[in-house]
């Protein structure tokens, strides 16, 4: 059997994720090799993600390579994957989740965050983070921040900003989390943040079976619930929508929100359900939040055309 060809973006973090999958395949007795590519989101590191106007900005290059039989599996940060997979592609594994949290990397100090009326300049390229940040700190200015994690960390030092928002998992996996950083426990993450997804072609039974052994079932259920919540609200668009599902003993607890792009309006939902009945939790929670202030916010988001997937 030929080695499985693992498609990956060529950033340090993406290669780490793909190498992790390669190591898991090796433990399962499956040979593999890495195939490096650049996504559209890697080539254009200036335009804000919401302005690129494409779906799957970080994933569609690998999807095309899969469908054209240039690779056999692709490894993605799951929060970047559209909720509707491309036709002909299927999920084959979800790895155990790392930290789901967002963190604030600050340049000098973070004391100003204790004052909600403070002024400051914060960098992020994510409309979800912008919306939640402005909801909490309405006097802050937001600067666009793009590029891989190494580039973005360097930009924090090179610019006159107070700091920038990152995903904890991205920095911690490659041991780049600075000492000058704090967890943003108040910020709900993107659906599936901290999880890694592996996909293959629908008709590739060997690739599918090769990855089954390292799926983490608890993570797979939680991210499915979160992505169902996102899909039911916006049809898979990456927007100011956040969700976090957590299994505690025999129950699943879901928190979700949708925030207007300017941060001025927010709708929230919290639901708890028995583990055995949790498969539809994301859809149920989405319907509930729409009835309690979410519909007006979603309509506003659609009218603004914020439809690009992905955030780094």
Automatic annotation (TrEMBL):
Domain Porphobilinogen deaminase C-terminal per the UniProt entry, residue ranges: 220-290
Keyword Transferase in record: yes
Keyword Transferase annotated: yes
Keywords from the named record: Porphyrin biosynthesis, Transferase
Gene Ontology terms: cellular component: cytoplasm
EC number: 2.5.1.61
Subunit structure as annotated in this protein's UniProt entry: Monomer.
Family note: Belongs to the HMBS family.
Protein name: Hydroxymethylbilane synthase
